Amino acid sequence: xxxxxxxxxxxxxxxxxxxxxxxxxxxxxxxxxxxxxxxxxxxxxxxxxxxxxxxxxxxxxxxxxxxxxxxxxxxxxxxxxxxxxxxxxxxxxxxxxxxxxxxxxxxxxxxxxxxxxxxxxxxxxxxxxxxxxxxxxxxxxxxxxxxxxxxxxxxxxxxxxxxxxxxxxxxxxxxxxxxxxxxxxxxxxxxxxxxxxxxxxxxxxxxxxxxxxxxxxxxxxxxxxxxxxxxxxxxxxxxxxxxxxxxxxxxxxxxxxxxxxxxxxxxxxxxxxxxxxxxxxxxxxxxxxxxxxxxxxxxxxxxxxxxxxxxxxxxxxxxxxxxxxxxxxxxxxxxxxxxxxxxxxxxxxxxxxxxxxxxxxxxxxxxxxxxxxxxxxxxxxxxxxxxxxxxxxxxxxxxxxxxxxxxxxxxxxxxxxxxxxxxxxxxxxxxxxxxxxxxxxxxxxxxxxxxxxxxxxxxxxxxxxxxxxxxxxxxxxxxxxxxxx
Length: 485
Prior knowledge:
Elements: H1 6-15, H2 22-32, H3 37-46, H4 54-63, H5 82-94, H6 144-158, E1 167-170, H7 173-182, E2 188-193, H8 199-206, E3 211-214, H9 226-229, E4 240-246, H10 259-268, E5 275-278, E6 303-308, E7 321-324, H11 327-340, H12 346-355, H13 358-386, E8 389-390, E9 398-402, H14 409-417, E10 424-425, E11 448-452, H15 461-484
């Protein structure tokens, strides 16, 4: 059982604003004699040995001021995204950062960043040329060459007719999504699935966006209907509805495509409706999938399509993403960039242009689709053979899994940490949880978790499955023994 100080420690770790509170609370824990693992972590933090408290500690010491007397001006309610909470907990337990040699990044949402040789994938660019012109300020809406490349990509692949004026370039996918949410008018309400990419909760909360959730359950196979997102029961006249949907979905891999995607777009183009469709995993489905294929009049709509070089183009490190939208909405975002962002790095944008070269991108699309279909199928079969319930759709590079009764993903993760591995607990994908991460909140998804095969090399399959099975079976035996005691 956690000790008396565990709730306090959990809240402090969530805010990452430790310096102002560590000393008095650590003294209190010494007085009551709590010795649980969480409080031991607090003691190490108080001693200055954990990296989470390094910000401001040195400054306070140098100035001679007591952190406990300083009222910091920035918000105390800005915890890291749920995935980062897993990374911090993993390092506390294993002593290394996830991604270091000997770790197994099953919690991580990045693809392989090397050529997919098994399926004929092209090499990735090694360099870009930087000229004197590239040291100028970038254009607020994006480099003309990149905007043209993005337009060519969508129009040739999906038969759309967008122009560069429909494209806004950002430093990755999430800044684009954040910007759309930040500038929504007050009469617009967001609808979002009850499980989604963890960062959406942070973005919606920090932008003070009004939102409500759409239920993702076993009963609807974690794939609610389009009509659920546009249900106006109890919605006053004049309220705009803006679904936010990742497609293919993160974490479940459930995908809207064909007639279902067409219906979603048609509903989104109706008066009073809109849509933010996050297409980060567009290439991870057969066939590849984008809502732009079905948009009739983009410039008269409130449809926003988010894309990036992060997943399918295998280059998360260059931080290039974009939003496709009406010219009017693009102008608003470009105006924001002029004072709030200042454009995106020219070298990164040049790299993205290389990634989108027509012949190259066709090969990349085919290789990504085939490689990840193969990985999804064989990992899925392995999990089914272990007795796990698999609710994964046919897109993305995650498996959406349920543990047997009596087990939780949080407890499984604690055991995986000791072996240098981690999964993402479904509670981090729970859009109904309190943003402050109230430790008393009980997620309905406590038995679910997301397993990522995105960064896994083909030849690690057997060892990954063997390690997961070993830890899982031991945990199951513990639970069976406890139930029979």
